[in-house]
Amino acid sequence: MEQHTGRFIAFEGIDGSGKSTQLVMLKQQLEAAGYKVYNTFEPTDNQIGSLIRDILKGKQSADQLTIAALFAADRLHHILNAEDGLLKKLQEGFIVLCDRYYFSSYAYHSVYVDMDWVIEINKKSAELLQPALNVFIDVDPETAMQRIQQNRVDTELYETLDMQQKVYMNYQRAFDKLNHQEHICKVPGHLSLADTATEILAVVKTVL
Ligand code: ADP
Ligand code: TYD
Q1: Which residues pair with 38 in a beta bridge?
Q2: CA 109: distance to chain centroid?
Q3: Residue 1 lies in a domain
Q4: Which residue has the higher pLDDT, 150 or 66?
Q5: Which residue, 12, 31, 96, 110, has fewest beta-carbon neighbours within 10 Å?
Q6: Which pLDDT belongs to residue 139?
Q7: How many structural domains compose the chain?
């Protein structure tokens, strides 16, 4: 793994679990405490990430193996690109908060393809940059779907209850499988925004 001075923390959960909302709040709290914080997300808004979003919206089509491989490529570009890549930000001393990372790939793509293969094609990412902590925001699929339906005009490819249930189960399967080599922490996500934020801050502080 590359040497750097920052801290890389990945946030995981099914769609509608509250990741994006919590990451904005966490950044504010950490900055108020004097930390340099950089928030980012996957799929990225770079070239490969944009192609992925078109596929998720149904504007272009691709088979599931290709989609999984595109996410792996997007992740490598996210880590390595010289402009605003994760390693660069970490070398600059930022705490990097990432909305989804390789556990998302394990949980989503293994609905369609073998999880071990998904882990395999993400090995280089795990080698280059392993999160100091993977925070799983734990919300049941029904609650998450209600939140999505209340708040969005259009839903994406993966946003059905059946899919959310499968993804939720796959997250648990991936955590069990990799428990010995990854730092994973589950946080309850059905609480109020403020209470969830307090729980997240407490676990994040343990790795700062
Ligand atoms: P994600 O990034 O995990 O998909 P979001 O942060 O976009 O989730 O949250 C999905 C929706 O649920 C948003 O409209 C958000 O305002 C709402 N939401 C997030 N956290 C909570 C919470 N703790 N209680 C109620 N609603 C929430
Ligand atoms: P995202 O924009 O984070 O959606 P949301 O804000 O609703 O959580 O991610 C878009 C979709 O991409 C989401 O359904 C999860 C999926 N995804 C994968 O299938 N594989 C991956 O490796 C990643 C990072 C995301």
Answers
A1: 96
A2: 13
A3: no
A4: 66
A5: 31
A6: 98
A7: 1
